[in-house]
Amino acid sequence: MRALQITKELFLLTLKTKPWKKDRFATKSNAVLIKKALERLGSVFIKLGQMLALRPDFIPPVFCDELYSLLDNVPSFDSTLASTILKQELGDTYSKILEFQSIPVASASFAQVHKAKLKNGDVVAVKIQRPEVYSLVQNDLAIMRFLAKLFDVLFRPTNKLSNIVEEFESWTQDELDYVLEASNIEKFDKVAKLVGDGIRGPKVYKELSTSKILTMEFIDGYNLTQIIGFIRNKDAKKLKQIGFNGKEATLKLIRNILETSHVHGFFHADPHPANIIYTSDGELVFIDFGIVGSLSKKDRILMLRYFRELLVGKADESLDSLLKLCGEPVLMNIGEVRLKYRILIHNFMETIEAKTYLEQQIKSGPILAETVNLLQNNGVKMPVSIVRYFKSFETVEGLIFALYPELQIKDMAKEFRRVSIVNIVDAIPAAISEKNLNNIVLSVIDSLEKNLVLND
Fold first, then answer.
1. What is d(CA 41, CA 225) in angstroms, rounded to the nearest whole number?
2. DSSP H helical ranges for 106-245
3. Which partner from 191, 339, 427, 439 sits 20 to 30 angstroms from 292, CA to CA?
4. Does the annotation mark 320 as catalytic?
5. Per residue in 379-417, pLDDT tens?
6. Which stretches of the chain drop beneath a pLDDT of 50?
7. b/e for 24-48, b at 16 or more Cβ within 10 A?
8. Where are the domains of the chain?
9. Tell me, what's the pLDDT at 340?
10. E strand or H helix that includes residue 348
11. What is the DSSP string of 385-411?
12. Catalytic residue, candidates 72, 140, 174, 270
Protein backbone atom coordinates (compact mmCIF):
# COMPACT_ATOMS: atom_id res chain seq x y z
CA MET A 1 0.00 0.00 0.00
CA ARG A 2 2.86 2.36 0.81
CA ALA A 3 4.50 1.64 -2.55
CA LEU A 4 1.20 2.39 -4.31
CA GLN A 5 0.80 5.62 -2.35
CA ILE A 6 4.31 6.80 -3.26
CA THR A 7 3.98 5.74 -6.90
CA LYS A 8 0.62 7.49 -7.25
CA GLU A 9 1.90 10.68 -5.58
CA LEU A 10 5.01 10.89 -7.73
CA PHE A 11 3.13 9.96 -10.91
CA LEU A 12 0.62 12.77 -10.37
CA LEU A 13 3.44 15.14 -9.48
CA THR A 14 5.23 14.29 -12.71
CA LEU A 15 2.08 14.94 -14.76
CA LYS A 16 1.52 18.29 -13.05
CA THR A 17 5.10 19.61 -13.14
CA LYS A 18 6.12 18.18 -16.57
CA PRO A 19 9.89 17.83 -15.92
CA TRP A 20 10.48 16.98 -19.59
CA LYS A 21 9.67 20.63 -20.44
CA LYS A 22 12.95 21.91 -19.06
CA ASP A 23 12.38 25.54 -20.06
CA ARG A 24 9.11 25.67 -18.06
CA PHE A 25 9.92 23.31 -15.20
CA ALA A 26 11.65 25.65 -12.71
CA THR A 27 8.63 27.70 -11.60
CA LYS A 28 7.22 28.79 -8.25
CA SER A 29 4.01 26.77 -8.81
CA ASN A 30 6.00 23.59 -9.50
CA ALA A 31 8.13 24.22 -6.42
CA VAL A 32 4.98 24.42 -4.28
CA LEU A 33 3.64 21.20 -5.80
CA ILE A 34 6.91 19.36 -5.09
CA LYS A 35 7.06 20.57 -1.47
CA LYS A 36 3.44 19.58 -0.77
CA ALA A 37 3.99 16.14 -2.30
CA LEU A 38 7.04 15.56 -0.09
CA GLU A 39 5.07 16.66 2.99
CA ARG A 40 2.27 14.22 2.17
CA LEU A 41 4.76 11.39 1.69
CA GLY A 42 6.56 12.28 4.94
CA SER A 43 9.42 10.25 6.42
CA VAL A 44 12.56 10.14 4.29
CA PHE A 45 10.95 12.14 1.48
CA ILE A 46 10.83 15.21 3.72
CA LYS A 47 14.44 14.51 4.67
CA LEU A 48 15.41 14.36 0.99
CA GLY A 49 13.66 17.69 0.40
CA GLN A 50 15.62 19.20 3.29
CA MET A 51 18.88 18.06 1.75
CA LEU A 52 18.00 19.44 -1.69
CA ALA A 53 16.88 22.77 -0.19
CA LEU A 54 20.53 23.59 0.53
CA ARG A 55 21.79 22.97 -3.00
CA PRO A 56 21.12 26.05 -5.22
CA ASP A 57 23.98 24.83 -7.40
CA PHE A 58 22.23 21.45 -7.83
CA ILE A 59 18.55 22.33 -8.29
CA PRO A 60 16.93 25.62 -9.42
CA PRO A 61 16.99 28.35 -6.71
CA VAL A 62 13.19 28.70 -6.91
CA PHE A 63 12.90 25.07 -5.69
CA CYS A 64 15.43 25.71 -2.89
CA ASP A 65 13.41 28.70 -1.68
CA GLU A 66 10.22 26.65 -1.39
CA LEU A 67 11.81 23.49 0.04
CA TYR A 68 13.54 25.59 2.68
CA SER A 69 10.39 25.58 4.81
CA LEU A 70 10.82 21.81 5.25
CA LEU A 71 13.88 22.50 7.39
CA ASP A 72 11.84 24.05 10.17
CA ASN A 73 8.17 23.46 9.43
CA VAL A 74 7.31 19.75 9.44
CA PRO A 75 3.81 18.79 10.73
CA SER A 76 3.93 17.40 14.29
CA PHE A 77 2.27 14.21 15.55
CA ASP A 78 -0.27 14.05 18.40
CA SER A 79 1.15 15.42 21.67
CA THR A 80 -0.82 12.89 23.76
CA LEU A 81 0.92 10.10 21.89
CA ALA A 82 4.26 11.87 22.42
CA SER A 83 3.63 11.97 26.19
CA THR A 84 2.65 8.28 26.21
CA ILE A 85 5.86 7.30 24.38
CA LEU A 86 7.90 9.36 26.85
CA LYS A 87 6.35 7.67 29.90
CA GLN A 88 6.77 4.18 28.40
CA GLU A 89 10.42 4.78 27.51
CA LEU A 90 11.53 6.42 30.76
CA GLY A 91 9.56 4.31 33.22
CA ASP A 92 10.29 5.32 36.83
CA THR A 93 12.72 8.08 35.82
CA TYR A 94 9.81 9.96 34.25
CA SER A 95 9.09 11.32 37.74
CA LYS A 96 12.17 13.58 37.38
CA ILE A 97 10.25 15.63 34.80
CA LEU A 98 8.26 18.31 36.61
CA GLU A 99 6.70 20.14 33.64
CA PHE A 100 6.17 18.83 30.10
CA GLN A 101 4.84 21.23 27.46
CA SER A 102 2.37 19.42 25.21
CA ILE A 103 2.92 21.71 22.20
CA PRO A 104 6.24 20.84 20.52
CA VAL A 105 8.82 23.60 20.04
CA ALA A 106 10.16 21.90 16.92
CA SER A 107 9.05 19.12 14.59
CA ALA A 108 11.26 17.20 12.17
CA SER A 109 10.82 14.31 9.78
CA PHE A 110 11.88 11.63 12.30
CA ALA A 111 11.06 13.24 15.65
CA GLN A 112 9.69 16.25 17.48
CA VAL A 113 10.99 18.23 20.44
CA HIS A 114 9.10 19.28 23.57
CA LYS A 115 10.26 21.75 26.19
CA ALA A 116 10.23 20.52 29.80
CA LYS A 117 11.45 21.40 33.27
CA LEU A 118 13.16 19.00 35.67
CA LYS A 119 12.73 18.81 39.44
CA ASN A 120 16.20 20.34 39.89
CA GLY A 121 15.07 23.41 37.89
CA ASP A 122 16.93 22.64 34.64
CA VAL A 123 15.05 23.52 31.45
CA VAL A 124 15.45 20.75 28.87
CA ALA A 125 14.52 19.80 25.33
CA VAL A 126 13.04 16.29 25.02
CA LYS A 127 13.41 14.74 21.58
CA ILE A 128 10.77 12.04 20.96
CA GLN A 129 10.97 9.71 17.97
CA ARG A 130 7.88 9.46 15.79
CA PRO A 131 5.95 6.20 16.32
CA GLU A 132 6.71 3.37 13.88
CA VAL A 133 9.21 5.59 12.06
CA TYR A 134 11.97 2.94 11.90
CA SER A 135 10.02 0.41 9.82
CA LEU A 136 8.58 3.19 7.68
CA VAL A 137 12.06 4.54 6.90
CA GLN A 138 13.36 1.11 5.85
CA ASN A 139 10.39 0.55 3.54
CA ASP A 140 10.58 4.04 2.06
CA LEU A 141 14.29 3.78 1.33
CA ALA A 142 13.74 0.56 -0.62
CA ILE A 143 10.94 2.15 -2.63
CA MET A 144 12.98 5.32 -3.15
CA ARG A 145 15.89 3.33 -4.59
CA PHE A 146 13.62 1.68 -7.14
CA LEU A 147 11.90 4.91 -8.16
CA ALA A 148 15.20 6.78 -8.46
CA LYS A 149 16.55 4.18 -10.89
CA LEU A 150 13.31 4.37 -12.90
CA PHE A 151 13.53 8.19 -12.99
CA ASP A 152 17.13 8.04 -14.25
CA VAL A 153 16.15 5.68 -17.07
CA LEU A 154 13.14 7.76 -18.15
CA PHE A 155 14.56 11.29 -17.89
CA ARG A 156 18.36 10.78 -18.03
CA PRO A 157 19.23 13.72 -15.71
CA THR A 158 22.78 15.11 -15.65
CA ASN A 159 23.09 14.26 -11.96
CA LYS A 160 21.58 10.81 -11.43
CA LEU A 161 18.89 10.67 -8.77
CA SER A 162 19.92 7.11 -7.83
CA ASN A 163 23.33 8.42 -6.72
CA ILE A 164 21.69 11.08 -4.56
CA VAL A 165 19.46 8.42 -2.96
CA GLU A 166 22.43 6.13 -2.30
CA GLU A 167 24.31 8.97 -0.61
CA PHE A 168 21.17 9.96 1.28
CA GLU A 169 20.60 6.41 2.55
CA SER A 170 24.14 6.12 3.90
CA TRP A 171 23.60 8.91 6.43
CA THR A 172 19.93 8.28 7.34
CA GLN A 173 20.21 5.04 9.34
CA ASP A 174 22.13 6.30 12.40
CA GLU A 175 19.61 9.09 13.01
CA LEU A 176 17.17 6.65 14.59
CA ASP A 177 19.39 5.59 17.55
CA TYR A 178 19.37 8.25 20.28
CA VAL A 179 21.78 6.37 22.57
CA LEU A 180 24.32 6.73 19.76
CA GLU A 181 23.39 10.39 19.31
CA ALA A 182 23.95 11.13 23.02
CA SER A 183 27.42 9.61 22.77
CA ASN A 184 28.12 11.66 19.63
CA ILE A 185 27.24 14.91 21.42
CA GLU A 186 29.61 14.20 24.29
CA LYS A 187 32.43 13.27 21.91
CA PHE A 188 31.85 16.40 19.80
CA ASP A 189 31.95 18.63 22.88
CA LYS A 190 35.41 17.30 23.77
CA VAL A 191 36.59 18.18 20.26
CA ALA A 192 34.79 21.57 20.38
CA LYS A 193 36.72 22.53 23.52
CA LEU A 194 39.97 21.86 21.66
CA VAL A 195 38.86 23.94 18.66
CA GLY A 196 37.56 26.76 20.90
CA ASP A 197 35.59 28.61 18.22
CA GLY A 198 32.32 29.18 20.09
CA ILE A 199 30.60 26.20 18.48
CA ARG A 200 29.40 23.39 20.77
CA GLY A 201 26.67 20.84 21.47
CA PRO A 202 24.06 20.84 24.27
CA LYS A 203 24.45 19.13 27.65
CA VAL A 204 22.99 15.60 27.58
CA TYR A 205 20.91 13.97 30.35
CA LYS A 206 21.70 10.28 29.81
CA GLU A 207 19.54 9.08 32.70
CA LEU A 208 16.54 10.58 30.88
CA SER A 209 17.44 9.20 27.46
CA THR A 210 16.82 5.93 25.61
CA SER A 211 17.12 4.74 22.02
CA LYS A 212 13.89 6.65 21.23
CA ILE A 213 14.13 9.54 23.71
CA LEU A 214 16.92 12.11 23.98
CA THR A 215 16.85 14.71 26.77
CA MET A 216 19.19 17.67 26.33
CA GLU A 217 19.83 21.17 27.61
CA PHE A 218 17.26 23.57 26.12
CA ILE A 219 19.07 26.06 23.88
CA ASP A 220 17.35 29.42 23.62
CA GLY A 221 17.92 31.50 20.52
CA TYR A 222 17.27 31.60 16.79
CA ASN A 223 18.07 28.67 14.53
CA LEU A 224 19.84 29.49 11.28
CA THR A 225 16.71 28.71 9.24
CA GLN A 226 14.99 31.63 10.99
CA ILE A 227 18.04 33.85 10.53
CA ILE A 228 18.23 32.98 6.83
CA GLY A 229 14.56 34.05 6.66
CA PHE A 230 15.53 37.44 8.12
CA ILE A 231 18.30 37.73 5.51
CA ARG A 232 15.99 36.84 2.62
CA ASN A 233 13.40 39.33 3.85
CA LYS A 234 16.16 41.96 4.16
CA ASP A 235 15.27 42.46 7.83
CA ALA A 236 18.48 44.26 8.78
CA LYS A 237 16.87 45.66 11.94
CA LYS A 238 16.18 42.18 13.32
CA LEU A 239 19.67 40.95 12.45
CA LYS A 240 21.20 43.94 14.22
CA GLN A 241 18.90 43.43 17.21
CA ILE A 242 20.06 39.84 17.75
CA GLY A 243 23.68 40.71 16.92
CA PHE A 244 24.08 38.30 14.01
CA ASN A 245 26.92 38.79 11.53
CA GLY A 246 26.68 36.54 8.46
CA LYS A 247 30.34 36.79 7.49
CA GLU A 248 31.54 36.03 11.02
CA ALA A 249 29.20 33.04 11.41
CA THR A 250 30.11 31.65 7.97
CA LEU A 251 33.86 31.81 8.56
CA LYS A 252 33.35 30.21 11.98
CA LEU A 253 31.37 27.32 10.42
CA ILE A 254 33.98 26.79 7.70
CA ARG A 255 36.76 26.74 10.27
CA ASN A 256 34.81 24.33 12.47
CA ILE A 257 34.10 21.72 9.77
CA LEU A 258 37.69 21.85 8.52
CA GLU A 259 39.38 21.78 11.93
CA THR A 260 37.13 19.17 13.57
CA SER A 261 37.42 16.86 10.57
CA HIS A 262 41.04 17.40 9.47
CA VAL A 263 42.76 18.06 12.78
CA HIS A 264 40.67 16.00 15.22
CA GLY A 265 39.05 13.47 12.87
CA PHE A 266 35.48 13.80 14.23
CA PHE A 267 32.86 16.13 12.77
CA HIS A 268 29.16 16.97 12.61
CA ALA A 269 27.96 15.51 9.31
CA ASP A 270 24.54 17.18 9.09
CA PRO A 271 25.04 20.90 9.86
CA HIS A 272 21.86 22.11 8.13
CA PRO A 273 20.41 25.43 9.42
CA ALA A 274 17.57 23.95 11.52
CA ASN A 275 20.24 22.03 13.45
CA ILE A 276 22.21 25.13 14.47
CA ILE A 277 21.02 27.71 17.03
CA TYR A 278 22.50 31.18 17.41
CA THR A 279 22.31 32.25 21.07
CA SER A 280 22.26 35.68 22.71
CA ASP A 281 25.88 35.02 23.79
CA GLY A 282 26.93 34.74 20.14
CA GLU A 283 27.44 30.96 20.31
CA LEU A 284 26.50 28.57 17.53
CA VAL A 285 25.09 25.41 19.13
CA PHE A 286 24.52 22.22 17.12
CA ILE A 287 21.43 20.41 18.39
CA ASP A 288 21.18 17.29 16.22
CA PHE A 289 23.96 14.69 16.21
CA GLY A 290 22.25 11.77 14.52
CA ILE A 291 24.85 11.90 11.76
CA VAL A 292 28.54 12.36 12.51
CA GLY A 293 31.67 11.38 10.64
CA SER A 294 35.22 10.34 11.46
CA LEU A 295 38.41 10.36 9.40
CA SER A 296 41.67 8.53 10.01
CA LYS A 297 44.91 10.53 9.95
CA LYS A 298 45.67 9.19 6.47
CA ASP A 299 42.20 10.10 5.23
CA ARG A 300 42.54 13.63 6.62
CA ILE A 301 45.82 14.22 4.81
CA LEU A 302 44.57 12.72 1.53
CA MET A 303 41.39 14.82 1.67
CA LEU A 304 43.40 17.99 2.21
CA ARG A 305 45.71 17.08 -0.66
CA TYR A 306 42.67 16.46 -2.87
CA PHE A 307 41.22 19.90 -2.16
CA ARG A 308 44.52 21.76 -2.46
CA GLU A 309 45.29 20.07 -5.79
CA LEU A 310 41.74 20.78 -6.96
CA LEU A 311 42.02 24.49 -6.12
CA VAL A 312 45.15 24.88 -8.28
CA GLY A 313 43.81 22.79 -11.17
CA LYS A 314 45.99 19.67 -10.77
CA ALA A 315 43.47 17.22 -12.21
CA ASP A 316 45.50 13.98 -12.24
CA GLU A 317 46.98 14.58 -8.78
CA SER A 318 43.61 15.42 -7.16
CA LEU A 319 42.00 12.35 -8.77
CA ASP A 320 44.83 10.14 -7.50
CA SER A 321 44.28 11.43 -3.95
CA LEU A 322 40.58 10.72 -4.23
CA LEU A 323 41.15 7.19 -5.55
CA LYS A 324 43.53 6.49 -2.66
CA LEU A 325 40.73 7.54 -0.31
CA CYS A 326 38.58 4.89 -2.00
CA GLY A 327 41.14 2.11 -1.52
CA GLU A 328 42.90 2.52 -4.90
CA PRO A 329 40.41 0.51 -6.98
CA VAL A 330 41.63 -0.94 -10.28
CA LEU A 331 39.69 0.70 -13.12
CA MET A 332 39.88 -0.86 -16.57
CA ASN A 333 38.78 2.44 -18.12
CA ILE A 334 40.98 4.71 -16.00
CA GLY A 335 42.01 6.69 -19.09
CA GLU A 336 38.39 7.54 -19.87
CA VAL A 337 37.72 8.48 -16.23
CA ARG A 338 40.78 10.73 -16.16
CA LEU A 339 39.68 12.45 -19.37
CA LYS A 340 36.20 13.17 -18.01
CA TYR A 341 37.65 14.34 -14.70
CA ARG A 342 40.07 16.68 -16.47
CA ILE A 343 37.09 18.27 -18.22
CA LEU A 344 35.39 18.80 -14.83
CA ILE A 345 38.52 20.43 -13.43
CA HIS A 346 38.97 22.52 -16.59
CA ASN A 347 35.42 23.86 -16.23
CA PHE A 348 36.10 24.51 -12.55
CA MET A 349 39.31 26.44 -13.25
CA GLU A 350 37.58 28.47 -15.97
CA THR A 351 35.41 29.98 -13.24
CA ILE A 352 38.03 30.24 -10.48
CA GLU A 353 38.26 34.02 -10.99
CA ALA A 354 34.55 34.48 -10.27
CA LYS A 355 33.80 37.28 -7.80
CA THR A 356 32.22 35.01 -5.20
CA TYR A 357 32.23 31.34 -4.22
CA LEU A 358 28.52 31.04 -5.06
CA GLU A 359 28.97 32.54 -8.53
CA GLN A 360 31.83 30.15 -9.19
CA GLN A 361 29.82 27.11 -8.05
CA ILE A 362 26.82 28.02 -10.20
CA LYS A 363 29.00 28.60 -13.27
CA SER A 364 31.14 25.48 -12.94
CA GLY A 365 28.46 23.18 -11.52
CA PRO A 366 28.58 21.23 -8.21
CA ILE A 367 32.13 19.89 -8.54
CA LEU A 368 31.94 17.54 -5.55
CA ALA A 369 28.61 16.00 -6.61
CA GLU A 370 29.76 15.58 -10.22
CA THR A 371 33.03 14.00 -9.10
CA VAL A 372 31.21 11.53 -6.86
CA ASN A 373 28.82 10.72 -9.73
CA LEU A 374 31.74 10.10 -12.11
CA LEU A 375 33.41 7.69 -9.70
CA GLN A 376 30.21 5.88 -8.73
CA ASN A 377 29.14 5.51 -12.36
CA ASN A 378 32.45 3.77 -13.03
CA GLY A 379 32.18 1.30 -10.17
CA VAL A 380 34.16 3.14 -7.47
CA LYS A 381 32.67 2.56 -4.02
CA MET A 382 33.27 5.49 -1.70
CA PRO A 383 33.70 4.73 2.03
CA VAL A 384 30.85 5.98 4.23
CA SER A 385 33.25 8.31 6.09
CA ILE A 386 34.16 10.07 2.82
CA VAL A 387 30.53 10.30 1.69
CA ARG A 388 29.63 11.89 5.04
CA TYR A 389 32.51 14.36 4.78
CA PHE A 390 31.39 15.45 1.32
CA LYS A 391 27.79 15.67 2.52
CA SER A 392 28.81 17.83 5.48
CA PHE A 393 30.95 20.05 3.31
CA GLU A 394 28.15 20.45 0.74
CA THR A 395 25.72 21.41 3.54
CA VAL A 396 28.16 24.06 4.81
CA GLU A 397 28.37 25.30 1.21
CA GLY A 398 24.59 25.71 1.29
CA LEU A 399 24.95 27.77 4.47
CA ILE A 400 27.62 29.91 2.81
CA PHE A 401 25.28 30.63 -0.10
CA ALA A 402 22.48 31.63 2.30
CA LEU A 403 24.37 33.45 5.08
CA TYR A 404 27.25 35.10 3.25
CA PRO A 405 27.04 34.72 -0.56
CA GLU A 406 29.84 37.31 -0.91
CA LEU A 407 32.42 34.80 0.37
CA GLN A 408 35.53 34.81 -1.81
CA ILE A 409 37.16 31.61 -3.05
CA LYS A 410 40.45 32.85 -1.58
CA ASP A 411 38.84 32.84 1.88
CA MET A 412 38.01 29.15 1.51
CA ALA A 413 41.50 28.38 0.17
CA LYS A 414 43.03 30.23 3.12
CA GLU A 415 41.26 27.95 5.61
CA PHE A 416 42.43 24.82 3.72
CA ARG A 417 46.01 26.09 3.91
CA ARG A 418 45.65 26.78 7.63
CA VAL A 419 44.42 23.30 8.56
CA SER A 420 47.04 21.76 6.24
CA ILE A 421 49.79 23.52 8.20
CA VAL A 422 48.22 22.54 11.55
CA ASN A 423 48.09 18.91 10.41
CA ILE A 424 51.74 18.88 9.38
CA VAL A 425 52.90 20.61 12.58
CA ASP A 426 50.89 18.11 14.63
CA ALA A 427 52.52 15.16 12.83
CA ILE A 428 56.13 16.45 12.86
CA PRO A 429 57.21 15.52 16.41
CA ALA A 430 56.14 11.89 16.06
CA ALA A 431 57.38 11.33 12.52
CA ILE A 432 60.64 13.25 12.12
CA SER A 433 63.82 13.30 14.20
CA GLU A 434 65.19 16.65 15.39
CA LYS A 435 68.15 16.44 13.01
CA ASN A 436 65.97 15.76 9.99
CA LEU A 437 63.52 18.45 11.09
CA ASN A 438 66.34 21.02 11.18
CA ASN A 439 67.42 20.03 7.68
CA ILE A 440 63.84 20.34 6.39
CA VAL A 441 63.32 23.76 8.01
CA LEU A 442 66.65 25.07 6.66
CA SER A 443 65.74 23.76 3.22
CA VAL A 444 62.39 25.56 3.27
CA ILE A 445 64.01 28.83 4.44
CA ASP A 446 66.67 28.56 1.73
CA SER A 447 64.02 28.03 -0.95
CA LEU A 448 61.89 30.96 0.27
CA GLU A 449 64.94 33.29 0.38
CA LYS A 450 65.86 32.45 -3.19
CA ASN A 451 62.33 32.85 -4.55
CA LEU A 452 61.13 35.82 -2.51
CA VAL A 453 64.30 37.92 -2.03
CA LEU A 454 67.34 36.98 -4.05
CA ASN A 455 65.47 36.61 -7.35
CA ASP A 456 63.48 39.80 -6.85
1. 22
2. 133-155, 161-170, 178-195, 224-232, 236-242
3. 427
4. no
5. 787 787 887 888 788 888 888 888 998 888 778 878 877
6. 430
7. eeeeeebbebbbebbbebbbbbbbb
8. 2-71+133-170, 79-131+175-294
9. 94
10. helix 334-350
11. HHHHHHHHHHHHHHHHHHH-TT--HHH
12. 270
